[in-house]
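Case study 2.
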Amino acid sequence: MKTKIIATIGPSSLSPSVFNQMADAGMDFIRLNSKYGTHLQYDKVLKDVNNSSKRLKIIFDISELKSLDYFIKNNLEYLALSFTESGEQIEEVKKLVPNAKIISKIESVRGVKNYNKILDFSWGVMIARGDLGEAIPLEQIPCLQKSLAHKAVKKEKFVIVATEMLLSMVESPKPTRAEVSDVANAIYDGASAVMLSEETAIGKYPIESVDFMNKIIKHTESCIF
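Prediction:
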């Protein structure tokens, strides 16, 4: 099964033309995050999704529960929860949106400590290496990523590897060799999806970022499957 590409939508990717070209380049999911847009802008994005010839899925990323109103109003399906740290936290959200497919973002020491319980209550997890790298020594992140991903795969959970995957493409039309290796290693780790953040939200090359990530996925998977 092809590793999916998640692209965060923002100023660089709001226009229908860019959005459609990203879909053609290999984008499978779009991620909506209040850091990069307003609800009014999201309304236009949702129209673009409905008008797209490709069946795109939407992840709504929240940091506070009051944002659930927009999720419910638009009958969205995938909900990413920032700083998930316990199974009980997920249970509380499920009471409000029982049909949501909850993606728990692992971003703290407590989230790592309670990971097994979090997995049990989640549809999927996101290994969010940005904030996680602030909480845990950087040299430990690669090993931890493998451990978290393998546990998720074993429990048949959707697992996303995120943060700074092709970050240099915010300014450059091509990634670095290290970034290409990073994406490939996430695939070797069993990632269900790899995610673009700044690259597609505020970068100069959102289409090229999706296209290059798709190339990495195709070649890496041809080596292991």
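The chain has one domain: 4-224.
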